Amino acid sequence: MDERSMQRLRQLPDDELGRAVARAADASFPRTPDIASIVQARLERDSLAYPELHPRRARAARIWFPWLRVRRATALAILAIVLLAAIAAAVIFGVPGIRFTFVPALPSLPPTPAAATPAPSSGTPLPGVSPSAPPGVSPSPPSSFVPSPGPSAVGIDLFLGAPVSLDEARHAVLFPLQLPSDPLLGPPDQAYLQQTRIGHAVTLVWVARPGLSASTSGVAALLTEFEGSLNPDQFQKVIGPGTSVTPVLIHGAAGYWLHGADHFFVSPTATGGNWDEQRVRLAGDTLLWNEGSVTYRLEAPVSQQVAIRIAESLAP
Amino acid sequence: MPHSGPQPEDGALIERARHGDHEAYAALVRSHQDVVFRTAYLITRSAADAEDVTQEAFIKAYRALSRFREGAPFRPWILRIAANEARNRRRAIGRRLEVSADAPVELDGGLAAAREPADPDATPEERALAGERREVLLTALGRLDEDDRLVIAYRYFFDLSEAEMAEALDVPRGTVKSRLSRAMTRLRERFPVAG
Predict the structure, then answer these.
(1) DSSP states of A236-251
(2) What DSSP string runs through B79-93?
(3) Tens digits of per-residue pLDDT, A119-159?
(4) What was the ipTM of the complex prediction?
């Protein structure tokens, strides 16, 4: 812009110049996300988990139940027992970083592209875990990343993140990545890396093999490892009435076996914002546990005993 | 442009929300989320941070509803909460912003131009000039400090009244006009060099 035009712009009265800036800026702001729905969902969750946060009850709670503010974990544990007994609707924190939400019925989801993906042939090594992953594959794609996967990159359809080699996955995470040594699984066929608000989540994928059949998505087993967090916004499971949650022990540490009807698994968006619908998918029988600061999630068509055996076989 | 002006239905929604009606509160959030998100964005300059800030601000406001003065306008109150939240967030990630302190306000980068409706009657030269003008204004806006940016945004982007601006900025009402005027003067001074 030449100096004369600039001068003309400078000489506009305040109101006119102000409106010109407003017009320039208006088209340029990022689109506002649907905050209202997120806030409503959080309030609904909090009203079950943190009754003291209701605006009218806030003062009374501080007076009569000061421990609610400092001992949320205790309050939640009691609340979980009460609500599990009632089993109408409940929120409990099981493994750090995972939230279980019980709902009367699961809404139906449109079929995911994964359902149409043919199962890869058994035991074929897939490019995802080869040490030379294709160049340009970003280990932490932005949330708008829309890959066009080949039929073998099943994890992308399941919103597991970007395909990476095992070495890349090991380097990306701050905790020692563990692999199951149980012979039923053997080495994983693919690995995926996903950015979360608190770090990275690695998901190892096994396709069908003897003793382990693949689901319609082409995946037989999934093991996700991520740094657990007390922030309950990271991951969420929405569990319908057909799913049972059984507390189990993995090497003496607490875990949960989710068995029965499919449940939703909601993973966080890469930008660290809240989940979006795209990232919601149906999950089968799942074992959830954590070891130190790391949370593990094994999804496989095996019995509870075999799942625990696999979990206990994890080694760096 | 987010709509401003009086929100007569806010009072009823706030009253229902105070009694635990989450849907009423969601409706209240929906009518103010644009303005709050944009304010947070002007401070944090990151869409992801602005989203988090907006969410936290509305949650904090909900928890503080029992302290909200009945009949008062909601918008300045929520803007004040959001601006504080955004400043805290920015302090936490300060290093990232220092890098871009002198950059134009990056309002969605290259996508911005694509979304701006082009005047179908404009000649290519006129369109180019409009684009340059826009660049000049956004560069100048980006070079302002945060207080100046907010006062301009509250007045011209969101059409807040003087009283609402005073409350949102947490300053005496009598100082709003002079603050705005000084901000506009500095905006002119921050125009890039002609070229």
Answers:
(1) EEEE-TTEEEEEEEET
(2) HHHHHHHHHHHHHHT
(3) 333 333 333 232 222 332 333 333 322 333 333 556 555 66
(4) 0.84
> CB of A231 within 8 A of CB of A195?
no
B143 neighbors B102 (Cβ within 8 angstroms)? yes
3-state SS class at A278 = helix
Q: Name residue, tokens 């000061």.
A: A66
- Check residues B34 and A212 and name the one with the higher pLDDT: B34
Please provide residue A102's backbone torsions phi and psi, each rounded to the nearest 5 degrees: -90, 135
Q: Do A24 and B25 touch (CB under 8 A)?
A: no
Could you tell me the two tokens for A136? 């340009």
- Cα separation, A241 vs A261, in Å, equals 8
* Residue A56: CB atoms within 10 Å: 12
Work out the angle at residue A234's Cα, subtended by the Cα atoms of residues A231 and A236, and round it to the nearest 5 degrees: 110
A271 in contact with chain B, both atoms CB, cutoff 8 A: yes
User: What are the tens digits of pLDDT across the range B55-100?
Assistant: 999 999 998 888 888 888 999 999 999 999 999 888 776 544 443 4
Residue A260: per-residue pLDDT = 64
Under DSSP, is residue A271 helix (H, G, I), strand (E, B) or coil? coil
> Which of B66, B140, B180 minimises the CB distance to A55?
B66
Please, which residues 98-117 of chain B have a Cβ atom closer than 8 Å to chain A? 105, 107-108, 112, 115-117
The amino acid that residue A124 corresponds to is: T
